[in-house]
């Protein structure tokens, strides 16, 4: 596999934990629908196109998960459930009326939460990145996805669970996130500095 967390110039392609926090802080000052998109991207590691395809029926408020249709798969009907915090679910319900749409008999659950094209979603993410002071090749929705993968492994999430959440077909793809310099690696290196 020729995939890396660094570009050809050696710049990282993932957001650090501090950058992820700054991103969400900046997103809170945006329109509510921009904020919810940013929350979903940061807290699920989904692809931008997967987030933009979400409808109310993909939000399982009782189970506490968002169900993504894996758009990168070459066939229909491939889904994955990613657990999210009660805060994310509450914001999605508050801004997008998820509960009301799910209870409506008129099929309100088939309306996309964000009726934007991919480029509009990309622009919104870039605007928030700029407001957060995050720049470089990692200041993208994909950088958020990579940052989610790195953060999950740093916090001890089993790699097989992360593979499921990210929708990777091969474990080797997910294992790349272990190449980031994480907290544990820094603690080990500190022993050399003393």
Topology:
Elements: H1 17-27, H2 32-44, H3 48-52, E1 59-60, E2 65-69, E3 79-83, H4 86-96, H5 98-103, H6 118-132, H7 141-154, H8 159-166, H9 171-175, H10 183-193
Antiparallel strand pairs: 1-2, 2-3
Helix pairs in contact: 1-2, 1-6, 2-4, 2-7
What does this structure look like?
The chain has one domain: hpI Integrase, Chain A (Orthogonal Bundle). It is built from ten helices and three strands, in the order αααβββααααααα. The chain has a three-stranded antiparallel β-sheet, with helices on one face. A hairpin with a 4-residue loop joins β1 and β2. α2 packs antiparallel against α4 and α2 crosses α7. The mean pLDDT is 89. It is found in: Cytoplasm.
Secondary-structure-derived class: mainly alpha
**What is the count of distinct domains?**
1
Cα separation of the termini:
37 Å
Largest sheet: 3 strands, antiparallel
DSSP summary, beta strand count: 3
Sheet with the most strands: spatial strand order: 1-2-3
N to C succession of SSEs: HHHEEEHHHHHHH
Low-confidence stretches: none
Q: How much beta, percentage-wise? A: 5-15%
Shape: globular
CATH class: Mainly Alpha
CATH architecture: Orthogonal Bundle
- Overall pLDDT score: 89
Total helix count? 10
Helical fraction equals 40-55%
CATH superfamily, please?
Intergrase catalytic core
C-alpha Rg (nearest Å): 17 Å
């Amino acid at each position: 596999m020729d995939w890396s967390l660094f570009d050809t110039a050696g710049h990282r392609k993932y957001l650090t934990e501090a950058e992820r926090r700054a991103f969400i802080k900046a997103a809170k000052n945006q329109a509510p629908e921009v904020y919810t998109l940013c929350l979903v991207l940061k807290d699920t590691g989904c692809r931008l196109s997967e987030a933009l395809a979400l409808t109310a029926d993909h939000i399982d408020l009782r189970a506490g998960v968002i169900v993504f249709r894996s758009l990168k798969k070459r066939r229909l009907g491939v889904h994955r459930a990613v657990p999210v915090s009660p805060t994310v679910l509450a914001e999605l319900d508050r801004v997008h009326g998820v509960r009301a749409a799910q209870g409506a008999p008129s099929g309100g659950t088939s309306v996309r939460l964000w009726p934007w094209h991919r480029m509009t979603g990309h622009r919104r993410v870039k605007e928030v990145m700029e407001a957060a002071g995050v720049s470089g090749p990692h200041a993208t929705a994909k950088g958020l996805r990579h940052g989610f993968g790195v953060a999950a492994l740093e916090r001890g999430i089993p790699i097989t669970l992360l593979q499921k959440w990210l929708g990777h077909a091969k474990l080797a793809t997910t294992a790349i996130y272990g190449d980031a310099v994480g907290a544990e690696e820094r603690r080990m290196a500190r022993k050399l500095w003393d």
